[in-house]
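Z., the sequence and structure:
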Amino acid sequence: MENTVAKFQALRLQRFYLAQLNYAITYVVIGAAWLAGQYNASATMAASHVLLGVGLQGALFGIFKSGFNLRFKDPSLTSPQIVIAMLLLTYLLGFSGEFRGSLIMVYPIILMFGVFQLSRRAFLSHAGLALILYGLLILFNIFHDTSTEALSAHLLEWFVLACFMGWLSFFCSYIRELRERLQRRHNVLKTHQTTLRGMMGQLQSLADTDSLTGLVNRRYFLSEAERRITLLTPGQHLGIALIDLDNFKKINDLNGHAAGDEVLQGFARVALNNLRDEDMVARFGGEEFVLLLDNSDLAALHQCVERIRICFAQTCFKSTGNEVYCTLSAGLNLLGPGDSLEKVLNQADLALYRAKHNGRDRCEVYDEAYA
């Protein structure tokens, strides 16, 4: 949230800096008009235009830098900036000579500053303000006889300004509406993209997850194990345990598949409760599961699987009304850098076969002597 506010605040400052270019050009025009004798006042009065402009813009700069502008409905302060610019321009036109007709076109330039912020009503209001200010200036000059131009010329200037400001108001408001329409379409597209990413994530999760136990499936396990092998450094090992639930078919035959499903889910809960966050357990198929322990050795691997074996053997399942217990047998092995995952799994499977042969409900470590 703070990053978003800072981003928009930076954009507002950029627009403010862009507006200062217009003020700089105005200051140059004032100096040129005074040198050419087209400024009907003293050098001190000419300097007052520059000082007044710099002072007001400095105050606005302080408001933006302090973040005080964020308290307003429009943090860009578009309307205040336009009104200040129009007042300063009218003040300048009051002392301009015969080139005043050229300077009145600065009013539309000022109005364009609000092209992305003001509504059509706001555009018309600011355009009306410009026409009122210039009309008052004409009346002031007529009553004080400070203008050498005929009244008809002043009225023609006012009429041209009114026509141009009216057209500009509708054009700029159209641009703003078009921008808002594009923004709405962009937001809708962004929403659709977010929804699509969510659906893709769900599909990926479904593709990687066993629906019954909630564990990752064989395909995901093999891919993730291969990735972790590539990250191993010399001396590091992954512990791997191939686990098979003992006499599982008998549980299904005697108590039904609902009991079998409950046993599978129960093993998943027991395994997850006894593993670290970085370890992984997957359903390998049927009643067979596989564990992968990060940064492990045989002692730690054996201790972890023994803890799971004992806890699982003590778990009672009663979904069918009967008390059902189940045990597991496990074959243990280690994965080192550069090892073949398929080969190590086959070796763990041999150890698992030995655990079954030796009476079940036990863990056996792969030993080449028994291979």
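The radius of gyration is 40 Å. Residues 2-191 form one domain.

Let me know what you think.
H.
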